[in-house]
Amino acid sequence: MIMSLTQIIGSLELGLIYGIVALAVYMSFRILDFPDMTVDGSLPLGASICAALMVHGMDPWTAVLLAFFGGCLAGLVTGILNVRFKILGLLSGILTMTALYSVNLRIMGRPNIALMAENSVFDAVKPWALLMVLVGLIWILLYSFFMTDLGLGIRAIGINPRVSRAYGVSVSRMTLLTLSFSNGLVALAGALLCQMQGFADVNMGLGTIVIGLASVILGEAILPSRSLLWRFFACILGSLLYRIVIALALNAGDFGLKSSDLNLVTAAIVALTMIASRRKS
């Protein structure tokens, strides 16, 4: 049951990467009130773009940046399907996510790419240190953005799109912008994840949306706050706690859990947290 220091650090590193995913999920689900399933495809998209570029000699930081823009494009497709063609938001995300599986295979040319022989952004510094700086920077930048007029407009359409439209806020543009940026962040997380793990795989995004939601729900349960700054921080905290709980559960031999039980444990954590929060209310 007791975790080693290496396991703890590894869990925290994964928690920080998926903290970026949690922030992106919070943007779409909580702020925009849009059930975006695209993230299950945009995380491996970021990993695929990053890995494919790195094996062709591109600088790892440039590969991460281009992966971010690739994710933005995926989110934009989902937004266009919803805004322009009036396809239900949930279905729009599912359609894009499904299409991205084939796109990711096209980008990599095969189901997975090994990066063990390639340089990464983590070569010069400990992964946890670099990730703390990156996640902290994203946290502050997101909060600063949502305090601007543009960010307040996005928050307004999530609360009441009809009233926002009456006040001159373009609901369509705000939706496209938010979905693009949130999926860009998820793809960025995928690019960092593939470099830290040393490989990119077409199936590595399976369950990403559930992990993101689990982190958000856990964070809200631990740190309930009306301040947007602390709500964003709660997403990161929830992601860290989620990874620790998962590691503890899989490390507990008495329960007979294996790595293949990850989705089962995740579903149980989300269900128990939601049940507990409803009983409190």
Order of helices and strands: HHHHEHHHHEHHH
List the uncertain runs: none
Q: Any idea what the CATH architecture is?
A: Orthogonal Bundle
Question: How are strands sequenced across the largest beta sheet?
Answer: 1-2
Query: How would you describe the oligomerization state of the chains in this entry?
Result: single chain
Envelope shape: globular
Overall domain count: 1
Summarize the structure.
With 281 residues, this protein is mainly alpha-helical.
Task: Characterise this structure.
- This protein is mainly α and 281 residues long.
- 44% of the residues are buried.
- It contains 11 helices and 2 strands, in the order ααααβααααβααα.
- It has a single domain (5-280), classed as ABC transporter involved in vitamin B12 uptake, BtuC (Orthogonal Bundle), CATH 1.10.3470.
- Helix 2 (39-54) runs antiparallel to helix 3, helix 2 runs parallel beside helix 4 and helix 9 packs across helix 10 (228-251).
- The longest helix is centred in the first third of the chain and has 27 residues, at 5-31.
- The model has no long low-confidence stretch (mean pLDDT 92).
- Helix content is 74%, strand content 2%.
- The chain has a two-stranded antiparallel ribbon with strand order 1-2.
Outline the fold blueprint.
Blueprint: H1 5-31, H2 39-54, H3 60-83, H4 89-108, E1 112-114, H5 127-146, H6 149-159, H7 161-166, H8 171-197, E2 199-201, H9 208-222, H10 228-251, H11 262-280
Helix pairs in contact: 1-5, 1-8, 1-9, 1-10, 2-3, 2-4, 2-8, 3-4, 3-8, 5-10, 6-8, 9-10, 9-11, 10-11
Question: What features would you highlight for this structure?
Answer:
281 residues, 2 strands, mainly alpha, 74% helix, two-stranded antiparallel sheet
